[in-house]
Amino acid sequence: MKIKILLYLFYIIFLLNSNLLSNENNKSLKVGLLAPLSGPYSEIGNSLLYSLQLALEEINDEEVIIVPRDSGFNNEGKMTSAVKEMRALGVKIIIGPTNFEEFDLVKKYSDLIFISPSNISPKFSNNIISIGVSLESQLISLTNFIKKQKKSKTILMYPKNEYFELIENKIQNLNLKNLKTFTYSPNPEILTGEIEILTNYSQRKRNLELRKKMFEDKEDEQSVKELQRLEQLYTLGDVNFDSVIIIDFGNNLKSVLTSLVYSDVNQNKVLFTTINQWFDESIFYENTIQNLYYPSVNYKEFKKYNNKYFKKFNIYPNEITILAYDALGLIYYAWKKNGEINSINDFMFKGKIKGKIGTFSFKDRTVTQELDIYKTDNKRFIKF
């Protein structure tokens, strides 16, 4: 399998570079790929390269030429060499870098435009446009969804970890209204106690015990039935919120969800939502959660892309590579629309642009994705 993949990669790089060398037409669109084609993250870099090959086949325009170069990972020497090589070959627009920590290394190339799959910020930054699914786009999608569900008491939850300040700043900049925030420890042992305080769990448990005592010594039919009903409960009384947005993922997200359910938050009354879900099927096996809603890319297009990728390369892609696919589509659209691409302002489209992941808008030098809302139901992803 590894030999086959390496042969494919060699073929693609050879093909793309051969096209470049054989086409010196100034009217051609030369697009660079700046990605870690070697080193610990080479799987992502190579997957991006494969994705561009698929996009190139769909565009089916011989004037579009991909120029891939290896950036390594946080390797200033390789990055500098790769960018200079591409610029010498006439490349004006580059897909990459993949890591936002490398942005400072390319900002100095003011004559070039970089389209990054990073989601660090939706705002145009000097010569860099990030088209990753940003937290801002996800929160806008979720708050609109929650409003449509007629929920008005929302708790925005996020962990006190290394991304804490970044999340705080993004929330403040969005100026979201009618939201209360709740921060929690990423340590599951501490988290449980914090969620109990949020949900007023101890008081609600006492409420139940006091209510049960009112009927324990009574023998009339109505009292007996009421006591039997109370015996089926864990707490008595509602929490003071009707919806939650959890900014977390992986095992940490599962810990938060489990703690909320353990604290007897009624899932029929409280809407559970989260972010950063790329249709992770492991969430199916979280038996504590009945319905979990989240914004994401278009599932049908995502599956179609994955299957097309697998059919050609006999391996499934890294999830972010669909962003490279869309990046080339956006670049091609701007090129066809304007006749050429000279600056970052050529991406200030007035209307909306439909891509594989969803619909983009580029208003006020800010990239926003209109995302669909999905929920997990009976081990399926259902578009809401």
Q: Label the CATH architecture of the largest domain.
A: 3-Layer(aba) Sandwich
CATH-defined fold name of the largest domain: Rossmann fold
How many helices? The count is: 12
Overall 3D form: elongated
List the domain count as a whole number. 2
Strand order of the largest sheet: 2-1-3-4-5
Estimated radius of gyration: 25 Å
Strand content: 15-25%
Give a verbal description of the structure.
The chain is of the alpha/beta class. The chain folds into 2 domains: 195 residues, 3-Layer(aba) Sandwich (Rossmann fold); 123 residues, Response regulator (Rossmann fold, 3-Layer(aba) Sandwich), CATH 3.40.50.2300. It has 12 helices and 15 strands. Strand 12 and strand 13 form a beta hairpin. Helix 2 packs across helix 12. It is elongated. The N terminus is likely disordered.
Topology:
Layout: H1 2-22, E1 29-35, H2 42-59, E2 64-70, H3 76-88, E3 93-95, H4 103-106, E4 113-116, E5 128-130, H5 135-148, E6 154-159, H6 164-174, E7 179-184, H7 188-198, H8 201-213, H9 221-231, E8 243-246, H10 250-262, E9 271-274, E10 293-296, H11 299-313, H12 321-338, E11 353-354, E12 359-361, E13 368-370, E14 372-376, E15 381-383
Parallel strand pairs: 1-2, 1-3, 3-4, 4-5, 6-7, 6-8, 8-9
Antiparallel strand pairs: 10-14, 11-12, 12-13, 14-15
